[in-house]
Amino acid sequence: IDLWGEDTQKSLENKHIIIVGSGGLGCSLGYALGSSGIGNISIVDFDTVSIHNIHRQIGFDLNDCGKFKVDVLCDRLKSRYNQANIKGYKMSFEEFIQDYDFATVNLIIDATDNLFVRQQIDRFAKSI
């Protein structure tokens, strides 16, 4: 609040962001943005937690191996800040854009590590 003022902080309650990917970058962004006061966060990912990624994905621990990343990350974010409406979508970005209503979305964040998906996100974001 000291940084940008109370009015700006209050306006975050009405913002809606989508984070595509809940791995290393998605976890970090989720933690930072999930406790910043943003009112609605949607997270899209189809992958599961794997032991070989634990070292760089701060949202997970060894007990999470085999679970869907999006489920674990959403639960962690909800436990850190319960004022945000956080929803997870266990699907690819391509599947997600088929039925999602983007009318209230303020920002789509690419947190993937796949060039093809990054290109899909870029094309889609420019088209809406």
Describe the structure.
The chain has five helices and four strands; from the N terminus they run αβαβαβαβα. It has helices spanning 6-11, 24-34, 69-80, 93-99, 115-127; strands at residues 16-20, 40-44, 85-89, 107-110. A four-stranded parallel sheet has the order 3-2-1-4, sandwiched between helices. Strand 2, helix 3 and strand 3 (85-89) form a beta-alpha-beta unit. The longest helix has 13 residues, at 115-127.
Short synopsis of the structure:
The chain has 128 residues and is α/β, with parallel strands linked by helices. Helices cover 38% and strands 15% of the residues.
Number of helices: 5
pLDDT < 50 stretches: none
Largest sheet: 4 strands, parallel
Structural class, from secondary structure content?
Answer: alpha/beta
In the sheet with the most strands, the strands line up as 3-2-1-4
Radius of gyration: 15 Å
Share of helix, binned: 25-40%
* N-end to C-end Cα span: 31 Å
The SSE order reads HEHEHEHEH
Q: In what range is the share of β-strand residues?
A: 5-15%
Query: Mean of residue pLDDT?
Result: 93
List the helices and strands and how they pair.
Layout lengths: L5 H6 L4 E5 L3 H11 L5 E5 L24 H12 L4 E5 L3 H7 L7 E4 L4 H13 L1
Parallel strand pairs: 1-2, 1-4, 2-3
Provide key terms for this protein.
alpha/beta, 15% strand, 128 residues, four-stranded parallel beta sheet, globular, single chain, 5 helices
